[in-house]
Design brief:
Largest sheet: 9 strands, mixed
Mean pLDDT: 81
Binding site for Mg(2+): 454, 456, 893, 897
Biased composition (Acidic residues): 25-35
Radius of gyration: 38 Å
Number of helices: 41
Subcellular location: Apical cell membrane; Cell membrane; Cell projection; Endoplasmic reticulum
Family: Belongs to the cation transport ATPase (P-type) (TC 3.A.3) family. Type IV subfamily.
GO molecular function: ATP binding; ATP hydrolysis activity; flippase activity; magnesium ion binding; phosphatidylcholine floppase activity; phosphatidylserine floppase activity
Structural class: alpha+beta
Oligomer: single chain
CATH topology of the domain at 464-481 and 490-710: Calcium-transporting ATPase, cytoplasmic domain N
Strand content: 15-25%
Number of strands: 35
Length: 1251
């Protein structure tokens, strides 16, 4: 693999964005981001300046006030906001969540208002009003009312069902219970009743109902362990800790009821990782930060109970603030369909106007001079033409098909049920089916260009597994027996000899077990001992079983592996750690823990053995460990080769080493360590410097290899989606090395991929901006823009960029403006104009830079954005939507993905492993990433093809039906007389031609699901909008126009000079109408037969059933009996029976149908023979292609020493539990005064040091 950058970057270190950190939070103020002033500054000036700035910032930002146990405080006038005229409401949100749109009173008016905002619905309402005017109407009012009521009714029922489901979900969440202090006692209350300022009690495994300040808990020092899966998709536990003062004084119910603390803090925002505030209590102030806040959506774990004060409730909570705006999503076909309906409106008005002018002219030339046409009204020709204009609007109204919208909704609803019922997208392990949570976006699934995916919990299972290791230069982990013979089929290692084994580790190298049990190589036991002792894992016993809580899943996997191999971590205190070594318990004194951080990329522990020796054990990324090794390390090269092999297998690697420390050396170092630990300023930097002094001349033991388990089928899915020309971008908050490693594991990246990083593209974009600026002279507007590629075409490139670089490149980095500029306002018009121009230039530059970035990124085959915030994820999606006009899909599983999911055209939530926040905000949900290929390549493609066929046919059949009136106008004096019976016009779209087209829209498929998956290239027709566009629309209209001409003129010619068998002429108007109607129904129903690719009994029955239904209803409506009952409504008495008994008329109908359909059959035959599409070819050979080809993983191209890719060990993104362990705050003991605990710990620590 080649990389697009050198190992050393070309930028100065200080000027580069930091790849290791997540950039500033989304709502960060400029004051929080300001520079810290000049590097050289007098100490007193610096202190004065910092104090003043902190005070100003606090006053400005901390305006949210909370009073404990005092609800009336938050109802004071200063906290009320005017909502509507004189109606006021509190600025403090209630804790009830509301996602529904309607209630019992507002449903009917609001729903009707929303439906009549649709142009077509409003048009038909106006049409209905026009039909009620006697001078204008040419059709009975029921011809419009019946279809309109059906459309409105079906849409209203669908909206009602959706809203009832939202009501149920809201009710379920709002009616969850917790304990709240009321009247001095804890009482059970519903979540919706909780208010800001309430003191609540939560128990183990409870969801947190609001953002609360932790006051106390059942754990030592009021620690509280929380699972944040709902927020970030991570299952490893985080800890929060209460203030020492609240921990001491707020343990009992009466003290909590008497608590009257006052909090001033920041306003509600979406920063999940930051919080700023102050608690004022007992005439003292206590600073508050994010480590003391429990966020809504998290779950209490391993803590029996805890107490908290509600700070933000309901819509103000951080999880709700991160959910982004709920956008109304519509498909590309929806927008196109609306424009086409507007086009038809214009055509309708032009036709009506032309015919109205024709009628005015005819009246002037013929009507006024024909005494037998006199109707008793002396209206002018122009006035009659004006009335006829509205008459033709009514007659030709079926050009704009009212049933189109309701038919589209029915088809989408049916397609959604097919997704819900698909057993191949059902995940039995979690009993989770796929779920279409919206019914309006199905065909858009067949047009996706870009997929934006989260990593943790979406591509991966977030489960780490110990796979291999290298000890003393020897690789272990491949399947082999104790004789070193490799086998493809070998039994799993039996760990039953180890009483502490958890039985979860699947390992197949029996030779390693032999080495551990015999103890022939001391390094092997030393290796696993290091894993058991060098960590910050917490342990507790549940039902006699060891249960580990790690700050990162990697660390938990390593400690669990050591446990299975015979070195079990049993217990720890503030300064000791107990290990079971092959069944023998030994306790070691912990002298120091050198914790991990993102700069060090390693952690160490210094212990004193029971024999009195002092040793340092260290583990970390190979890049930092190799720099600190002793020159004489014999297995250095062998371990390097093993690391390359592990990296090629996309395993996460970690180096282990140790050193012996002399007593004198440790004593000297420990003095520096203690001094750095209490440094008043720059403590972290001082500690890192002291750590460097002891972490050198290390002896290499070996390396571990952990598998970050991908979900099943992820590489196969990504491979197939790539073949469908869908580009996949991974957006994650994880580290760069980890994200890159997963990219290789899921085959998004390969060894042949050239990887570009943030610093590389920054220089490319800078050069491009300079070139664009140089070209942007006087004649810039005259020169057409030329698309210049950033890279040589044909190269396989990928982009890996961090959130910090993203902000730098997209000019999103917030900078502090000087206070002088903040206070300076433009005084003159010239200053105002110059400032406005300057701002405009900056906006143009930013827009151009963003467009260039999107162009560059889209030239890459894959893009990985790591260390990005939720807002940045949404911003990247929005940039691609805006500048590429491409259809996007976002898929994720945590609350940090919600904004991205809502921003994309289609949002998919992964349900099962993590929380439900992403699922609740998504359009589609399922349990595994691999189901995405079936959702897009099968359901999406089918839905797109069905919808396109449906729309093309619908416009065709309506133009064929309606334009017969237009041709008839030339023979009736443009009088707006209809060519059909009124009831035929009413029922044409409702009964006679609706069912076949609905079934085609629901059931049709060009190739089977297996062939759709096997040939992903079939998907591109949707991406390129090939099946429904303006060209296809006008072809359908032209087809409809020609069909209407044939339908009118062939019967007209047949009727001109005709005598029937009985010697009578059948050429009356009513017989003519029946002939045209019969030919029309047979033609349009046979036409859909030609359009159908997938025949079933239901399709055939619907086509012939619709024709039979037409004749059955027509004979009924033309019977004498119904005419007697309703003489004014049914005037075609006996017409059908009289006309259709004439063979001549049947021959006319057959000729008309043949002339309409035979050219279509000929054109289809020629196109499939001469210009077959990809699906035509596959249909032709589908029997030969029945056997589905199995996907095979890409063969490895490993070349020894060629790969420099290795994932740094993925420690937790924050510090581990080292501070808690060394301070003793996390150790569970019998309740005793806090001072006594600290005193005992300090004394013990001093005795250890002095000895």
């Amino acid at each position: 693999m080649s990389t697009g950058r050198d190992s050393e970057t070309t930028f100065e270190e200080d000027s580069q964005p930091n790849d290791e950190v997540v950039p500033y939070s989304d709502d960060e103020t400029e004051d929080e981001l300001e520079d810290q002033g000049p590097a050289v500054e007098p100490e007193q000036n610096r202190v004065n300046r910092e104090t003043e700035e902190k005070r100003e910032t606090f006053k400005k930002d901390c305006t949210w006030q909370v009073k404990a146990n005092d609800r009336s405080f938050h109802e004071q006038p200063q906290f009320m906001n005017t909502k509507f005229f004189c109606i006021k409401e509190s600025k403090y949100s209630s804790n009830a969540i509301k996602t529904y749109k309607y209630n019992a009173f507002t449903f009917l008016p609001m729903n009707l208002f929303e439906q009549f905002k649709r142009a077509a619905n409003f048009y038909f309402l106006v049409l209905l009003i026009l039909q009620a005017i006697p001078q204008i109407t040419t059709l009975a009012w029921y011809t419009t009312l019946v279809p309109l009521l059906m459309v409105l009714g079906i849409t209203a029922i669908k909206d009602l069902v959706d809203d009832v489901a939202r009501h149920k979900m809201d009710k379920e969440i709002n009616n969850r219970t917790c304990e709240v202090i009321k009247d001095g006692r804890f009482k059970t209350a519903k979540w919706k009743e909780v208010q800001v300022g309430d003191v609540i009690r939560l128990k183990k495994n409870d969801f947190i109902p609001a953002d609360i300040l932790l006051l106390s808990s059942s754990e030592p020092n009021s620690l509280c362990y929380v699972e944040t899966a709902e927020l970030d998709g991570e299952t490893n536990l985080k800890f929060r800790m209460a203030l020492e003062s609240t921990h001491e004084h707020l343990q009992r119910e009466h003290s909590l009821a008497a608590f009257d603390g006052f909090i001033e803090c920041e306003e509600p925002n979406n920063r999940l990782d930051k919080f700023t505030g102050t608690l004022f209590w007992r005439n003292m102030s206590f600073p508050l930060d994010a480590d003391k806040i429990l966020l809504r959506g998290c779950v209490i774990r391993n803590t029996d109970f805890c107490h908290g004060l509600v700070i933000f409730a309901g819509a103000d909570t951080k999880i709700m603030r991160n959910s982004g705006k709920t956008r109304f999503k519509r498909t590309k076909i929806d927008y196109l369909m609306n424009y086409m309906v507007y086009t038809i409106f214009v055509v309708l008005i032009l036709l009506s106007a032309g015919l109205a002018i024709g009628h005015a002219y005819w009246e002037a030339q013929v009507g006024n001079y024909s005494w037998y046409l006199y109707d008793g009204e002396d209206a002018t020709p122009s006035y009659r033409g004006f009335l006829n204009f509205w008459g033709y609007i009514i007659v030709l109204n079926t050009m704009v098909p009212i049933s189109l919208y309701v038919s589209v909704e029915v088809i989408r609803l049916g397609q959604s049920y097919f997704i819900n019922w698909d057993l191949q997208m059902y995940y039995p392990e979690k009993d989770t089916p796929a779920k279409a949570r919206t019914t309006t976006l199905n065909e858009q699934l067949g047009q996706i260009h870009y997929i934006f995916s989260d990593k943790t919990g979406t591509l991966t299972q977030n489960i780490m597994t110990f796979k291999k290791c290298c000890i003393n230069g020897q690789i272990y982990g491949d399947p082999r027996d104790v004789s070193l013979h490799s086998h493809s089929k070998i039994e799993q290692v039996d760990f039953s000899w180890n009483t502490y084994a958890d039985g979860k580790l699947a390992f197949y190298d029996h030779y390693l077990i032999e080495q551990i049990q015999t103890g022939k190589e001391s390094e092997v036991r030393q290796f696993f001992f290091l894993l058991a002792i060098c960590h910050t894992v917490m342990v507790e016993r549940i039902d006699g079983q060891l249960n580990y809580q790690a700050a990162s899943p990697d660390e938990g996997a390593l400690v669990s592996a050591a446990r299975n191999f015979g070195f079990a971590f049993l217990a720890r205190t503030q300064n000791t750690i107990t290990i079971s070594e092959m069944g023998t318990k030994r306790t070691y004194h912990v002298l120091a823990i050198l914790d991990f951080n993102s700069d060090r990329k390693r952690m160490s522990i210094i212990v004193r053995t029971p024999e009195g020796n002092i040793r340092l054990y260290c583990k970390g990324a190979d890049t930092v460990i190799y720099e600190r090794l002793h020159p004489m390390n014999p297995t250095k090269q062998e371990t390097q080769d093993a690391l390359d092999i592990f990296a090629n297998e996309t395993l996460r690697t970690l180096c282990l080493c140790y050193k012996e420390i002399e007593e004198k050396e440790f004593a000297e170092w420990n003095k520096k360590f203690v001094a750095a630990s209490v440094a008043p300023t720059n403590r972290d930097e001082a500690l890192d410097k002291v750590y460097e002094e002891i972490e050198k001349d290390l002896i290499l033991l070996g390396a571990t290899a952990i598998e970050d388990k991908l979900q099943d089928g992820v590489p196969e899915t990504i491979s197939k989606l790539a073949k469908a020309d869908i580009k996949i971008w991974v957006l994650t908050g994880d580290k760069k090395e980890t994200a890159e490693n997963i990219g290789f594991a899921c085959e998004l990246l390969t060894e042949e991929t050239t990887i570009c990083y943030g610093e590389d593209i920054s220089s490319l974009l800078h050069t491009r901006m300079e070139n664009q600026r140089n070209r942007g002279g006087v004649y810039a507007k005259l020169i057409p823009p030329v698309h210049e590629p950033f890279f040589t075409p044909g190269e396989n490139r990928a982009l890996i960029i961090t959130g910090s670089w993203l902000n730098e490149i997209l000019l999103e980095k917030k900078t502090k403006r000087s206070k002088i500029l903040k206070l300076k306002f433009p005084r003159t018009e010239e200053e105002r104009r110059m400032r406005s121009q300057s701002k405009r230039r900056l906006e143009i530059k930013k827009e151009q830079q963003q467009k260039n970035f999107v162009d560059l990124a889209c030239e890459c085959s894959a893009v990985i954005c790591c260390r990005v915030t939720p807002k940045q994820k949404a911003m990247v999606v929005d940039l691609v939507k805006r500048y590429k006009k491409a259809v996007t899909l976002a898929i994720g599983d945590g609350a940090n993905d919600v904004n991205m999911i809502k921003t994309a055209h289609i949002g998919v939530g992964i349900s099962g492993q993590e929380g439900m926040q992403a699922v609740m905000s998504s359009d589609y949900s399922f349990a595994q990433f691999r189901y995405l290929q079936r959702l897009l390549l099968v359901h999406g493609r089918w839905s797109y093809i069905r919808m396109c066929k449906f729309l093309r046919y619908f416009f065709y059949k309506n133009f064929a039906f309606t334009l017969v009136h237009f041709w008839y106008s030339f023979f009736n004096g443009y009088s707006a007389q209809t060519a059909y019976e009124d009831w035929f016009i009413t029922l044409y779209n409702v009964l006679y031609s609706s069912l076949p087209v609905l079934l085609m829209g629901l059931l049709d498929q060009d190739v089977s699901d297996k062939l759709s998956l096997r040939f992903p290239g079939l998907y591109v027709v949707g991406q390129r909008d090939l099946l429904f566009n303006y060209k296809r629309f006008f072809v359908s209209l032209l087809h409809g126009v020609l069909t209407s001409m044939v339908l009118f003129f062939i019967p007209l010619g047949a009727y001109l000079q005709t005598v029937g068998q009985d010697g009578e002429a059948p050429s009356d108007y009513q017989s003519f109408a029946v002939t045209i109607a019969s030919a029309l129904i047979i033609t349009v129903n046979f036409q859909i037969g030609l359009d159908t690719s997938y025949w079933t009994f239901v399709n055939a029955f619907s086509i012939f059933g619709s024709i039979a239904l037409y004749f059955g209803i027509m004979f009924d409506f033309h019977s004498a009996g119904i005419h007697v009952l309703f003489p004014s409504a049914f005037q075609f008495t006996g017409t059908a029976s009289n006309a259709l008994r004439q063979p001549y008329i049947w021959l006319t109908i057959i000729l008309t149908v043949a002339v309409c359909l035979l050219p279509v059959v000929a054109i289809r035959f020629l196109s499939m023979t001469i210009w077959p599409s990809e699906s035509d070819k596959i249909q032709k050979h589908r029997k030969r292609l029945k056997a589905e080809e199995q996907w095979k993983r890409r063969p490895s191209m490993f070349r020894r020493g060629a790969s420099s890719r290795r994932s740094a060990y993925a420690f937790s993104h924050q510090r581990g539990y080292a501070d808690l362990i060394s301070s003793g705050r996390s150790i569970r003991r019998k309740r005793s005064p806090l001072d006594a605990i600290i005193a005992d710990g300090t004394a013990e620590y001093r005795r250890t040091v002095e000895s």
